[in-house]
Design goal:
The protein is 33% helix and 25% strand. The chain has helices at 10-21, 58-67, 83-92, 105-121, 145-155, 211-223, 233-237, and strands at 2-6, 25-30, 48-51, 72-74, 96-99, 128-135, 163-166, 175-182, 189-195, 200-206, 229-231. It contains 7 helices and 11 strands. The chain is α/β, with parallel strands linked by helices. The two termini are 26 Å apart. α3 links the parallel β4 and β5. The strands form 2 sheets. A 6-stranded parallel beta sheet has the order 2-1-3-4-5-11, sandwiched between helices. Strands 7-8-6-9-10 form a 5-stranded mixed beta sheet, covered by helices on one side. It folds into 2 domains: 2-99 and 211-237, 3-Layer(aba) Sandwich (Rossmann fold); 105-207, Dihydrodipicolinate Reductase, domain 2 (2-Layer Sandwich), CATH 3.30.360. It binds nicotinamide-adenine-dinucleotide. Nicotinamide-adenine-dinucleotide is lined by residues 6-12, 30-32, 35, 52-54, 57, 61, 75-78, 100-103, 213. Its EC number is 1.17.1.8. Pathway: Amino-acid biosynthesis; L-lysine biosynthesis via DAP pathway; (S)-tetrahydrodipicolinate from L-aspartate: step 4/4. Homotetramer. Its main location: cytoplasm. It comes from Adhaeribacter aerolatus.
């Protein structure tokens, strides 16, 4: 497959490595220095684009692909306020769009187990629940997209909480607090923690490298072309 890489930072470079290992070719590489070259790409020279850039550039990059018939897999986080607009544009253009805040298969199993645990834990009022996420210091958004997806999965199955809050000093009784910490070289660590007076139950996912994300993104790019609509990891993994 001819893959257009949009964003050639830590993730773009890891995705290139995995895509070439799997026998794909690169239609091109776009980063901030040559962003004007994006207009050279369309459905005649590109089978699929993989977009990992920045919260501010992701919506424009995705729009370009949808308007030019390029199926697009995006992993950029921190731009969810534009998500409905992108979904509408995808439908209007009969396009193919795949989004995941986290492409790791392990994290998506973590999402699934988190939802299951919430359905069981919601009956026990003696437990206090919170989420913690830890990432490298260059991460620009907070909380992480993965932590937000984790929070949404929990909120949908845990009626005692009705919204998530970020780093609240004193969260309200119905608020689910997401604590964010930043340290050098942490790829991504997420924990859902239920604590009672007597014990603690924790579910943790700890990413050891970016390869898990890149493999999931390439898997999504292989799966998406030919499918019309908006998809995510639950569709890809049949969860
Ligand atoms: N969904 C996932 O599984 C997952 C995993 C890791 C990171 N991420 C997210 O992916 C994004 C990128 O992460 P990263 O670690 O590679 O970051 P990075 O900072 O290493 O790389 C981002 C790259 O995008 C480029 N860029 C910025 N604006 C651009 C534009 N308009 N057009 C083209 N390129 C542009 C930058 O120059 C940089 O090279 C972030 O939003 C991050 O949170 C998602």
């Amino acid at each position: 497959m001819r893959i257009l890489l949009i964003g050639y930072g830590k993730m773009g470079k890891t995705i290139e490595q995995i895509a070439l290992q799997k026998g794909h070719e690169l239609a091109g590489i776009i980063d901030i220095q040559n962003r004007d070259s994006l207009k050279e790409y369309n459905h005649t020279n590109t089978d699929v684009a993989i977009e990992f850039t920045h919260p501010e550039s992701a919506p424009e990059n995705i729009k370009y692909c949808l308007q030019h018939g390029i199926p697009v897999v995006s992993g950029s986080t921190g731009w969810m306020q534009h998500f409905e607009e992108i979904k509408d544009l995808c439908r209007q253009n009969n396009g193919s769009f795949f989004y995941a805040s986290n492409y790791s298969v392990g994290v998506n199993l973590f999402f699934h187990f988190n939802e299951y645990i919430a359905t069981k834990m919601q009956a026990y009022e003696g437990f206090h629940v919170e989420i913690k996420e830890v990432h490298h210091t260059q991460k620009v958004d907070k909380p992480s997209g993965t932590a937000i997806t984790t929070a949404e999965g929990l909120l949908n199955n845990y009626p005692a909480k009705n919204k998530w809050v970020s780093d609240a000093a004193a969260p309200g009784p119905q608020e689910l607090n997401i604590i964010s910490e930043r340290y050098a070289d942490v790829v991504g660590l997420h924990t859902v923690k239920y604590t009672s007076e007597h014990d603690t139950i924790e579910l943790t996912h700890n990413a050891h490298s970016r390869i898990g994300f890149a493999e999931g993104a390439v898997m999504a790019a292989e799966w998406l072309p030919g499918k019309k609509g908006i998809y995510g990891m639950k569709d890809l993994l049949n969860l």
